[in-house]
Each structure stands twice: as C-alpha cells, then as structure tokens.
Design a protein that fits this description.
about 45% helix; 20 strands; alpha/beta; six-stranded mixed β-sheet; Aldehyde Dehydrogenase, Chain A, domain 2; 2 domains; globular
C-alpha cells in the first residue's frame, strides 16, 4: 500500500499531539505513524455522531439495507486491496485474510436481507384482548461505541459495525493501533457505498484513554478482547447504566471421540488451532483423545503439522503467517517455556523461526501439561495446542468443562454421538467435525461466550436487535375503562377471572 494511500486514510483521524509507530509484522519495520486521539477528541466524535444519527434513524430500513448491499458489492470488488491491508497489519496468511473478507461479505448480505423485517413494528398478544392492542417498536440506541481487536480487524469490525448501522445508529469505532488502516479502509468503502461520513467515525489510541472515553460517552458499547479488559469495560458501562456486549477470551477444547478417523481429526484440529497463527479467540488450544488412540494420533498429527508451509505472500501458497508483534511472540514463548520447565513434552515446534521473520513461531504440539503450568488454563493465543488423554466420554466432557471460560468447543467423530456430547459442553458455540468455522460462518446464529467468555451475543437477529431499545405501545379501545378503584374491581374481577379461564383453554 502506497504512502499516499495511507496518508489519505489517516487524515480522518485529524491532527493530534502524539503519534505511534505501526510495524509490519513480517519485517518488524515501521509502516507509518498513527495519530493518537485524546479523551476530548473522542467525546467530540461521539457528539458529532449523535447529531447525525436521527436522520439516519428516520431513513427507511429498506434504504439502509440497499446501502448494505452496495457495500457488499464494493467489498467484493476491492477484496484484494482489503486482504493486502489485513496482511500488512497482521502478518496472517492470505487464506486467513480471505476468511475475514468472507465474514464481512456475510455480515453485509445477512443484515441487508433480514434487517428490514426484523426492525418492523410487530403486533403482540394483548393482555386484555378486544379491550386493548399492543405492539413493539425497535428504537435505535443512538451512538454505538465499537471496540475492536487487532487479530481479526476486518471481520470483527464489520460483524459489529454493520448491524449497528443497519439498526439506525451511528458508530464511533476504536480500532487497535496495529490495525487501524483496516478499519479506515472499511469506512472508506462504506462512504463510497453511500453512507454519511458522520455516521461512522474511527478513533485511535490506547485503551486507558480512548477506550474509557468511548465507554464514558457512547450509548452502547460492543467490546471484543480479553476477559480481564472486558470485565473492566462492562463495569464502566454498567456504572452509566448503558447496555453493552462483550466477546471475550476462550480456552477452547476439542474432544476426539473413539469413532473418529484420526487422519480427519488431525486435519480438523490443525484447521481449528492454527488459523491466523492461533491468534483467534475461538481457536482450539486443548485436545482430548481416547488414551488408547493418543500415541497413534500424535504420530499422525506431528506429520501433518510439520508439513505446513509458513511464510508471507500475497497469494494462497502459505498455510500460516507470522505472529503479529513482539508482545505476541514473548507471550507464546513464555507459555511454552513455563510448560517445558515444569515437565511438559514438545512433540513438534516450540521455537521461533527467525529465518522467516522476527515474529514467526513454529506450530507447536505439547503433551504432559499439568495444572501447575500456565498453559493448563491460560489462553496462549498462538499456534500452540496441548493434547491430553481420557478414559471415558464422561471424563472428557468434565475436562472440557473444567475452565472458567466457555467460548467455543469442538467434537470430532460420529455425528449423532458428537451431537449428544456437544449439548453437554458449556460453550457458546460447539462445532461438530470442525474447529470453529461451522459456527463462526453462520451469520443467522448467535455467537458469544458462556461463563467468563462474554456477555450478550453477536450475529443473528439477536446481533441486530441488541442495538435497539424495545418499546411497547398499548392502546385502549375505549369500550370499557380499566378498573383502578376497589369498588370497580369488585365488579370487574369475576369477568377478568372468566377471561383467564377462557384464555387458558385456547
């Protein structure tokens, strides 16, 4: 991407007192200087968005859907440039950048299709039929603050921003510094598709300044990130009594059943564990295999892992890219070093690949992980998976559920048996014979976490209506007045009791 193109995009951020360098993960060299906003600038952005939002809320939902369809077509048209930017900022392989494009296309198409009907006023069953009539309106909340992470900067941006806009809101988005270009180019496409620029503002800066300022000013907060930070965001939003949704971390398990074909199970695990170099909240980090199959499975898995191609290219020739920065490399190395120091065994990988670039790390399989190791229940967020054995399926389910988090899970084996097991796993999404894509790609299904993995859901009708306030309107037809005095209830109570008996039998 040219310096001129970058400069044109970051002009949106305005003049600021502080800049930070954004690095290219492939090389470790700086790409550009990113302006950092102040708390006052964030408050001003929310105020400007609030002025623009009412006109957008009054725009017919079908017209908002038409804009989404136009954006969908532009994403298709500009997908190569989008993938280039995602790869530039994250270092991920082309295939995983394409998955982000696919997620954005799915979000635009889905909410354009279902939005107008979902947002219609809907008649509800009245409490006293004939005498009253009720219906529900869906009122936009106003200005939605969207806080997006660096690991899936396109998909996780559009999966939250687009339904918020479709619902009639304005959006102020805090992107991660490392991936702000992706957010800015997405906004650029939205404006080309016909969106008023004031309806989607991007701000950049550290979480303590910009994230807190957004939470302190917006009418709704949609946050994706770590469980620790999410708890802080939720508490701050709750103190203002504004609604919020949190998609947080996971320590995601896969159970391989006795009925599974080991070759297929290994392929499924690789797809679920090493996508985007494992830097994905729903990626698989721990695997449970029947003890009598464990050794054989490890042989198959090791061979497949060691055949993966690592590197960077703007085509689909590489399987895995790089970690996104020095902090990520240090994080992954720390988990592996702690585990091996305490007795864990590295079956393959377990080391950086400095010959490829400063932050590449070999896909890693570990066994012998015990509860005194950080890897046992800590989210590695890298290309590392721990393999455990189990004696019976009851034990496997208990092990899968032995965590404070519950975002995603996977079961591999006979579909009918796997479905029974899946229903017993405490996770917001469970994939059968797949790692995470079967549910992640299902835009019509809600996605989110149980336990400490989140609050609320994205995707589906839930992911649209959460950006609205449900307003119930009731009308009295004037035939009879509702009783409110004791003597009136003395006359009306028998009639209301009779009505209850009739309604009970309908």
């Amino acid at each position: 991407m040219s310096d001129t193109s970058i400069a044109n995009l970051i002009k949106h951020l305005g003049t600021t007192a502080t800049n930070v360098a954004v690095i290219n993960p492939k090389t470790g060299n700086a790409i550009y200087e990113l302006p950092q906003q102040s708390a006052d600038q964030v408050a001003a952005a929310v105020k400007a968005a609030r002025l623009a939002q009412p006109a957008w809320a009054q725009t017919p939902a079908k017209a908002r859907a038409a804009w989404l369809y136009a954006l969908h077509d532009l994403i298709l048209e500009e997908q190569d440039k989008l993938m280039d930017i995602v790869q530039l900022e994250t270092g991920k392989a082309r295939a995983h950048a394409f998955e982000e494009v696919a997620g954005g296309l799915g979000a635009a198409r889905y909410y354009a299709k279902v939005g107008p009907n979902a947002l219609k006023s809907k008649k509800t069953v009245a409490g006293v039929p004939v005498l009253t009539k009720t219906w529900v309106n869906h009122i936009p909340v106003g200005v939605v603050g969207v806080i997006t992470p660096w690991n899936y900067p396109l998909a996780l941006c559009l999966l939250d921003v687009l339904p918020a806009l479709m619902a009639g809101n304005a959006v102020v988005q805090k992107s991660d510094n490392q991936t702000t270009l992706t957010a800015l180019f997405s906004r650029h496409l939205a404006i080309r598709a016909g969106l008023d620029p004031a309806l989607w503002t991007v701000v950049a800066g550290d979480g303590a300044t910009v994230g807190n300022a957004l939470t302190d000013n917006a009418d709704y907060i949609a946050f994706t990130g770590s469980s620790k930070t999410g708890a802080q965001v939720g508490a701050r939003a709750a103190a203002r009594l504004i609604p919020f949704s949190l998609e947080l971390g996971g320590k995601n398990p896969m159970i391989i059943l006795d009925s599974a074909k080991l070759d297929f199970a290994a392929e499924t695990l690789i797809g679920g564990a090493f996508g985007s170099a494992g830097q994905l909240c729903v990626s698989i980090e721990r695997v449970y295999v029947p003890n009598h199959l464990k050794d054989e499975f490890l042989v198959v898995l090791k061979e497949k892992v060691e055949s993966l191609k690592l590197g960077h290219s703007n085509d689909f020739s590489m399987d895995i890219g790089t970690l996104t920065g020095a902090n990520q490399l240090a994080r992954v190395q720390g988990f592996v070093a702690d585990a091996t120091a305490k007795g864990a065994n590295v079956i393959t990988g377990g080391h950086p690949l400095a010959n490829l670039g400063p932050y590449y790390y070999a896909p890693t399989v570990v066994t012998g992980v015990t509860s005194d190791m950080n890897m046992f229940d800590g989210e590695v967020f890298g290309p590392v998976v721990a393999v455990y054995g189990y004696d019976n399926i009851k034990e496997a389910i208990a092990l899968a559920n032995y965590t404070t988090e519950g975002l995603n899970a996977s079961v591999v084996g006979n579909k009918r048996e796997a479905a029974r097991v899946a229903a017993q796993i405490m996770a917001g999404t469970v994939n059968i014979n797949e790692g995470f894509r079967a549910t992640f790609a299902s835009l019509d299904s809600p996605m989110g976490g149980m336990k400490q993995s989140g609050h609320g859901r994205r995707n589906g009708i839930d992911g649209l209506l959460k950006y609205t306030e449900a307003q119930t309107i009731g009308i009295h037809n004037g035939l009879l007045n509702f009783p409110w005095q004791g003597k009136q209830y003395n006359r009306m109570a028998p009639l209301l009791n009779l009505l209850s008996k009739i309604l009970r039998r309908l």
